[in-house]
Amino acid sequence: MTVSNYIVSLAEAQTRLPPPVASSRLLEQIDQQVEQLPILVVLDDDPTGTQTCHGINVLTVWDDATLVEEFHTCDRGFFILTNSRALPTAEARKLISDICTAVKKAAVQAQKTFEIVLRGDSTLRGHFPDEPQIAEEVIRKVDGWILAPFFRQGGRFTIDDVHYVADAEGNLVPAAQTIFAKDATFGYTSSNLIDYVVEKSNGSIPRHRVQSISLHDIREGGVSAVAERLLKFAQGSIIIVNAIVDTDLEIFVLGLLQAKSAGRNYIYRTGAAFVSTRLAIRPKPPLSAGDLGLNTEASSPGGLIIAGSYVSKTTDQLQSLTSGRGPALKVITLDVESLLNNTESSYSTGGITSSDIATKGLRMRRAQIIGQASAGVPLWRCDEPSSKFSGIPYVVFPGNVGHQDALLDMVTSWQSRSIEKRPKMQYQRLGNSGLKVSKIILGCMTFGNPSWEGSPWVLPEAEALPLLKKAYDCGINTWDTANTYSNGMSEIIIGKALERYNIPRSKVVIMTKLYYPVLEPESNARPNPAINDGVLVNQMGLSRKHIFEAVDASLARLKSSYIDVLQLHRIDDTHPEEVMRALHDLVQMGKIHYLGASSMYCWQLVRLQYAAKMNNWTVFTSMQGLYNLLYREEERETNKFCQAEGIGLIPWSPLARGLLARPWNVKTDRSVKDAKTAKWFSVSATRYYVKLSDAKKNSIYYLLSRQPFTRSVGNNWSISKLCPIGKGIPLPKP
C-alpha cells in the first residue's frame, strides 16, 4: 500500500467499508462456549496486557505448585507476567521456553487442556516472531499463528492489513510512522502487517505464508465466512485479523471457534482486546476509590506514583500531573545514569517499570485483575500474605495509553476530599415520548473554533471539555449541538468528551441538527447567505441525499452509532413527504431515535407533522425555537400547536444572547461583537425585564414554569455557575 492510500481517519474508513455488525449477543455466544474450551494461558510480555480483563488472576511465578493450583481453580484462563520485553532476544527465548515447559507439565498434572496467547504490544513492539516460534516448538505444532494487535481502547486499528495508531485528534497514523516504531530495540519500518511479518522475520517467513481475514470477510460474510477462510489456509500460515470495532473481533473469534471445532489449533500473538473477547469478559466501567472501599479522608494514607517510561506520552502525562496537582503532589526525581554502573544497561517502559514494582517491590506472586482505573489502565490487587502490602490496589499505567491529562484525571478522581452530593437535576419526558431529558440543556454552539464566523464567542476545545464534564457531573444529561457549529468541531468535541471522561453513551442525550453546509473543520468560514447552488449544491438543505449524508457525517464526528434527537435546523422548499420519509427511514435504521424541528413558522411545522402522520411515519417529538422574556412571538401559535400535539418545546437563547444575564447598561466583549442582539431585542423591553444579578435566575425560571416549555438551552455557562443555575426563583406570570 502506498502512502497516498493510507486511511487518515475512522470516518474515512467507514465510507470505504461495509457497516459494522451491531449486535449485543455476539459476546454472549462466545460465553456459551467458553467452559468447553481449553484454558487460555496468556503470557504477557509486560503487565499492561491485563487492560481489558477483570475477574481473573495474573501470576508472576510459574513453579509447579502455583500453576497446578491455578489450572484447578480458574474456569477460563489466567495471565503469566513474563516481562520478556525487558530482556535481550536470547534471554527472552529461553524464558518463554521455560514457562511453556512448566505450563505444559502443570496442565498434564491438573488434567487440563490449554492454549497459549503471547500478548504483545498493540503498537507492534516486542520479540516477534521469536516468542511464537519458541512456544510452538515446546508445546506442539499448530495450524497457524493468529496476529491480532487491535486494541480499541488504546486507539489501535487494523484496516486493509495496515495497522494504525489514532492520535489525540482522532487521526489514524500508520504504526510505522509513530514514535513506537522508532524503538531502539524493537523498531520497524512496515505498517502493513504482511510486510511487518516478513521484515521482523528477516525474510524467513515469506509473503505467501501470510494471510488475512478482512473486514469484508467479517462484516459481509460473518462467522461462517471467517471459519471457511481459516479452514482453507495452509498449515503454518500467519493470519492477520483486521478490526475497527469490538464486534469485528467478536465475529472473528466465533469463526475461530468454529475452525477449532473442526480440529484446527493455533498460537496467538495479540493485543489485549483478543484476550477479553476470547474469554467473553464483558467490559465494565472504570473503578473509583469509592468502588474499592478506599478511605479518601485527608488523614488517610496517600498514594505512590512511580514513572519510568521514556516515551513522550508519559512525559506529557507527568507534566500535566505535576502542574495540575501543584503542591498537593510531592515529586522525587532519580537520575537513572547515576544509579547504574557504566557496564550496565537498562530496558525500560511504563509497563516494564510496573512489572519490577509488582514482582520485586511489592513481592506479588498471584494478583487478581479487578478491573481498570481508567480506559486501558489495569487495576490489580494482591490479597496473599506473601505480598509486602497485601490488599492495596495497584494501578498499572501503560506508557502508550491515554490522553495528556489521563494520569491527572485519575489521580484527581482518587484524591482526598470530602464527598460532595451531586446536585439534584430534574428530568422530564420530551413531549409525549418516553425519553427523559434534563430540564436544563447544555447548548454547545459555542464550543469549537474561536475564529468561526458563525458566532462572536466560541470556546476552544481545551476550555469546552471541562465544561462538558462539569455539566455531566451536575446532572445535565442533555447536550444540544448542530453539525454546522464551528464546521463540525462542536460535535467532535462532544465525542471527545465522552471518550476522555469515560462517560457512557447511554448516560447522555445528544441532540444535533442539520440543514446548513459543513465546511472543513479548520475553516473559519460560515457561508452567509447559504444557498443550495454552485459549490454548495446538495451540501445543504433537506433533500433525502443531504439528510442521509449529514447524519452519517455527524455520527462519525460524535463517535456514536446513533443520535438521540435529530432536529431540522431550518426549513427549505423540499417537499414535506421527501423530508419526513427520509427522517423516518433513518429512525428505522436505528441511526436516529427521535425527531425534532427548529426555527420555523407554525404552518411549516404543521405541514411536516401531518405529512408524517398521514403516512404513519415518525413524527416530531420536540420543537426548538427562539423564546425568552424579550422575544415571545412563539406564544401566538407555535406553543399552542405543540401543546396540542404533545411536542416538547425547547427554547434557544433563553438569556437573549446574554442580555438577561447582566444589568441592561453593562457591556461585555461578547455583547460588543454581537450584532444580532440589537437586531433582535429592543432596548425598552430589556430595561423592563433585566434586574441586575437576579435576571438570569428569573429568565430561566420563567421558561421552566411555562407550559408546555419544560427545558431551556443555555450556552457558555462558567463552571462555577453550571450547577446552581437550575434553581430559579419565583416569578409571577405576566
Question: What does this 3D model show about the protein?
Answer:
Keywords: ATP-binding, Carbohydrate metabolism, Kinase, NADP, Nucleotide-binding, Oxidoreductase, Transferase. This is NADP-dependent oxidoreductase domain-containing protein. Belongs to the four-carbon acid sugar kinase family. Belongs to the aldo/keto reductase family. Aldo/keto reductase 2 subfamily. GO terms for molecular function: ATP binding; kinase activity; oxidoreductase activity. With 734 residues, the protein is of the alpha/beta class. It has three domains: 276 residues, Rossmann fold (3-Layer(aba) Sandwich), CATH 3.40.50; 93 residues, no CATH class; 300 residues, Alpha-Beta Barrel (TIM Barrel). Helices cover 34% and strands 16% of the residues. It contains 24 helices and 24 strands. Strands 9-10-5-11-4-1-3-2-12-13-14 form an eleven-stranded mixed β-sheet, with helices on both faces. α4 runs parallel beside α5. The radius of gyration is 29 Å and the shape is globular. The termini are far apart. The C terminus is likely disordered.
